[in-house]
Q: What sequence folds into this?
């Protein structure tokens, strides 16, 4: 299998355009046309993880956290990131990263964690939407079938349906030339970028110098998913009782807690990784308990004053499940799941 075949499959479930604007995802090292036989799925690309991939003759490492995040001015053995990248390149290993797009996807990490907690119904905390556009093009009737095949090539989707379009008869009148031509009008729904590419292809197969078309933004939007999940317990529980449930479901020995253990809770929010930036948002919607990681002292202090309890389950502990999710989509390949140890140890 080529790298691009696998990544195309992954990006259908975890689209790149759902990632946060500051993120760096996708194929970060390697050639998408290279053949792969063995994949290693790892949360991070530490040197230990890279060495493990080399020892096991892995062609592709899929990580959650990007190995390249901020700007790099040089790649040499004199700096830490350069040393790792050189080792990867010299051993012909590609690195593909799925970060906030995996967090936000409908079948992504936030959803996976809530399901592990036994939650059947949840809502997205910060939803992302895609605008839907309508492309209307007039073409000669004999070009209709050729145009339909072009539409299918671009993989346009609307609300779970592929290649949504409809046709009608149209008549074009050119007064200057006293010319009337009967055509077919094809209307296609989809995202703007794909429709623009489709339009360029249509122009190539048309016999006219100019074609009649319009592209307009509709009021329709498609939910792409989003960060975080919110849910309600069927009945109130004491914080201490729910603490034991979370430990059991997520296989945790320790959780840092903000709040009194006898407090009654019902509305809960979950954000994997570091979710402190969502504190104001969860306060506005009346969350009783916020489950996340990487909470600092002043953020915890603010939460206590807001009367929001917190379970800080740890960054690594809330995201290592990433490997379980990705493994599902690599069943045509030999897969190794390998993670470095958590950075923090509870002693």
A:
């Amino acid at each position: 299998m080529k790298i691009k075949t696998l990544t195309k499959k992954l990006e259908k479930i975890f689209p790149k355009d759902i990632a946060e604007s500051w993120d760096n995802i996708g194929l970060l090292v390697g050639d998408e046309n290279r053949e792969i036989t063995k994949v290693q799925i790892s949360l991070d690309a530490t040197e230990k993880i890279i060495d493990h991939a080399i020892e096991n003759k892995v062609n592709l490492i899929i990580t959650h956290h990007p190995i390249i995040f901020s700007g790099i001015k040089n790649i040499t053995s004199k700096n830490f990131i350069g040393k790792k990248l050189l080792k990867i390149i010299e051993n012909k290993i590609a690195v593909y990263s799925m970060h906030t797009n995996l967090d936000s996807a409908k079948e992504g990490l936030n959803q996976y964690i809530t399901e592990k907690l036994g939650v059947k119904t949840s809502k997205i905390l910060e939803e992302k939407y895609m605008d839907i556009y309508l492309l209307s093009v007039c073409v000669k009737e004999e070009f209709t079938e050729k145009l339909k095949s072009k539409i299918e090539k671009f993989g346009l989707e609307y609300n779970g349906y592929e290649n949504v379009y409809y046709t009608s008869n149209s008549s074009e009148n050119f007064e200057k030339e006293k010319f009337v031509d009967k055509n077919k009008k094809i209307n296609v729904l989809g995202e703007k970028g794909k429709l623009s590419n489709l339009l360029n292809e249509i122009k190539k197969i048309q016999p006219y110098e100019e074609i009649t078309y319009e592209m307009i933004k509709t009021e329709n939007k498609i939910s792409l998913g989003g960060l975080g999940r919110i849910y309600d317990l069927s009945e109130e529980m004491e914080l201490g009782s729910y603490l034991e449930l979370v430990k059991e479901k997520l296989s945790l020995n320790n959780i840092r807690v903000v709040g009194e253990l006898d407090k009654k809770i019902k509305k809960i929010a979950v954000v994997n990784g570091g979710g402190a930036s969502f504190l104001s948002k969860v306060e506005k919607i009346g969350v009783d308990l916020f489950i996340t990681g990487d909470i600092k002292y002043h953020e915890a202090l603010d939460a206590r004053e807001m009367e929001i309890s917190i379970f800080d389950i740890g960054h690594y502990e809330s995201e290592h499940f990433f490997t379980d999710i990705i493994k599902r989509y690599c069943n045509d390949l030999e897969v190794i799941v390998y993670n470095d140890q958590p950075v923090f140890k509870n002693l």
Observations:
- The first helix runs from residue 3 to 13.
